[in-house]
Structure prediction request, 452 residues.
Amino acid sequence: MPYSPASVLLILLPPGHQARHYMLAMYRACERLGMACRTLEIQPLRDQIARAADPRAAMRTLSRNLAGLVRSNQIGRVLSYATAGTVDLGLVPTPDGPATIWNALGVPQSILWTDHPNWAAEGLALQPGACAALGHELNTHWLKSQAAAEEARATLGWRNICAMPVAEDYELLTPIDNVEAVHDVVTIVGSLARLPENVEAFLECDDPDPQEIDLAMVGPVRDCWRERVCVDAPDSTALDRFAADLLERRAHEPAASVWTLARRLEPEYGQVVDWLMQTPRRWYEAEAVLRQAAGWRRTFWTAWLARRVNVGVYGCSSAEIGIDQPAGAAGWVAYDHQPMIYARGKCALNINQSHDQAGATHKPFQIVASGVPCVHHATAELSDLFTPGREIVTFTRGPELLAAVDRLCADPELRASLADRALARARREHTWEHRVKAMLEVGEHAPMRVAG
Prediction:
């Protein structure tokens, strides 16, 4: 018999550098909202199953223990991150098919995906059994952009997928005043890949045309497409034409996602799109190839700007693109050290990686929380969160980027006003309290009881 939802929210805490901070921030937000909530560490549960001589017996024991926890603590809903604490713990047989432990207990689950389902945990969510279990009617999934949500809804077949921007913990990340700005611009990134030679040639141009660079990427991407996607296709010729047409359109509509463009081409390439979407993994692997056409942007604009102003790169090595770094800058930046790093620049730069085709990652929120002006590549849905020109600065071409940086570097009052307005907007509209309330209001599940 399904467990009747009660009134306490259980927040699952994964290990790791990033996701753990998000879930702890949501826990603190729930406490500030006066919600009855508690946390549960995920890693000991994983270890319990992984180290067991009989994993199935360990899974049954874990299920019984968690059933007791649910009943004794009146758990009405679980809030978790990606696959952590769901399918990574294994699946439980039920009359309706394999389910997560929580769904087998009848507990609804709200799942936050800041890493997209197609690549989080090495694509675990795309495995057939895991994908089916995550699509259970008790699960609601939250993706960080409307474009990603629409794509996942169509490709994964999950019933409940919503779009919701991420947020930040403005008590953990706060502006720091006593750090000298030693760079014109600071960027914190996890990796900067070497640019293809045909793209590298554009670095010396004062106004490199993004459309020309996109078109320069078409040939290499089509070669990869033929090698990795066309091999097993029933009509490789039509599939190749589809890729060529989509890449051509992408060069002229750089803000459009691969998914959006594929749907527009569907009337002409219906059989091709149907074949690509036969399985989620096939679609997302094909999409990953097509996304390579925009993979130059983060590295290119960082390297292009560094040839003209002082750019400080932190979080990874920039040796491949010829940017000198301070000692230790290539190392991992701890989550709560970000304000100190961003304060080393008069402004901060962020450019989404190609897999984040729309919306905002955590970066602009982290920059804004640090009290530093944010310069961001123009991305679909970003202007819904912060007003360009008033709260952030956006760019699509090099001269725009350079002019924005020059203005900010020359005008301390402009830097302060832009940063202050962005931070005020973030604290007013983009807190984890806002996000938690939105997550818990969706669906027909029992509302959380207010503690006390």
Remarks:
- Residues 1-6, 444-452 have pLDDT under 50 and may be disordered.
- The chain has three domains: 8-167+433-441, 183-195+296-430, 210-294.
- Residues 120 and 296 are 22 Å apart (CA to CA).
